[in-house]
């Protein structure tokens, strides 16, 4: 593809931004590409930080997305350790934190998200960690030999994966969650109960419906105090209580609702300004949604990059997907739903291999959770993408292929 676009500036060198920059070259962009990030590390892959990297099964080199040589070959001007302070949408310029002003023809925001912090007494003690960056992971790994007991605050996917990793490392793990069940706000109570029992069966002390109110210790954390009066001894605390999309780059014409609002092509409310990945709210099946995962970041970044070059626009219609590896479980979630009408189990939970479907009132599958069933990934993705009603009574029957569970009108 040929393009008249000269300079494209990408803010954020994470998964979305790095893959978008690469996609621009693949799609034929010959102009300048400036990739900016506040981090000082070469672009790297974040999902392994809580799993393979934490376990020592992968190195910093293994998780690097682009080397200096690759970036030079792709003619990508990488600026690390700087951020954008402001943009002028009329002049199409961006002011960087080091004082430089960069002119752009198209601007792509892939600013990702930041971790929510826990501002309680003792939060400044040594040994209290958050896991977002490679530097965070390095800091935790350096202390592993000194840690026997670890408290993990938050039983979301990062907290759950870290619980799994620390158990594999032989540590005593306490998992604290203020909700009644882990992940129930995404997966429902039945699956929340399943994952609670999964962690408990692996030896994790999983405490639900309790919150941390204080960290105790002289200079280093020694114990966690909870609202219900529990005292949990530990030599390290990992806090994982959610994220906030990075939308610090503001403009009175830039629409924001949790993240930068974009249309199906990745366009924001400002001309020639786009957004992709964790920082964006994008349309899926009639609703603006926000997804924080590797698969979405890659696909959205590539799609928006292509649309930035002009020509025929391509709607982003990829079915949302994320996965999580915990113990000997591969968990895969497809789709997006908050208000499902019914759920259907296909398979046996005791076998550690099953599929769990979330249906709306029209018997359309809006989302599905696969546990150790990667073979069902493709047909499930197709069913969600087609948005065709299914026969709920057929779904539990594993002798019937998934594609044969769709409702067929009589002639």
Q: Could you explain the architecture of this structure?
A:
By secondary structure, this protein is of the alpha/beta class. It has three domains: 7-114 and 243-308, FAD/NAD(P)-binding domain; 117-239, FAD/NAD(P)-binding domain, CATH 3.50.50.60; 328-405, FAD/NAD-linked reductase, C-terminal dimerisation domain (Enolase-like, domain 1), CATH 3.30.390. It contains eight helices and 27 strands. It has a five-stranded parallel sheet. A five-stranded parallel sheet has the order 9-16-10-11-12, covered by helices on one side. It has a five-stranded antiparallel sheet with strand order 23-24-27-26-25. Strand 10 (149-153), helix 5 and strand 11 (172-177) form a beta-alpha-beta unit. Helix 1 packs parallel to helix 7 (294-308). This is NAD(P)/FAD-dependent oxidoreductase. Keywords: FAD, Flavoprotein, Oxidoreductase.
Query: In CATH's first tier, which class of the largest domain applies?
Result: Alpha Beta
Under CATH, the topology of the largest domain is which?
FAD/NAD(P)-binding domain
Distance between the termini: 47 Å
- Taking all Cα atoms into account, the compactness measure Rg is 23 Å
Q: In percent, how much strand structure appears in the residues?
A: 25-35%
Outline the secondary-structure elements:
Elements: E1 7-11, H1 15-26, E2 32-37, H2 60-63, H3 68-73, E3 76-80, E4 84-88, E5 93-96, E6 101-103, E7 106-109, E8 113-115, E9 128-130, H4 134-142, E10 149-153, H5 157-168, E11 172-177, H6 184-201, E12 205-208, E13 212-216, E14 223-226, E15 231-233, E16 236-239, E17 243-245, E18 256-257, E19 259-261, E20 273-275, E21 280-284, E22 287-289, H7 294-308, E23 321-326, E24 329-335, E25 342-348, E26 353-359, E27 365-371, H8 377-386
Parallel strand pairs: 1-2, 1-7, 2-3, 7-20, 9-16, 10-11, 10-16, 11-12, 19-21
Antiparallel strand pairs: 4-5, 5-6, 8-17, 13-14, 14-15, 18-19, 21-22, 23-24, 24-27, 25-26, 26-27
Helix pairs in contact: 1-7
Cofactor: FAD
Protein name: NAD(P)/FAD-dependent oxidoreductase
Keywords: FAD, Flavoprotein, Oxidoreductase
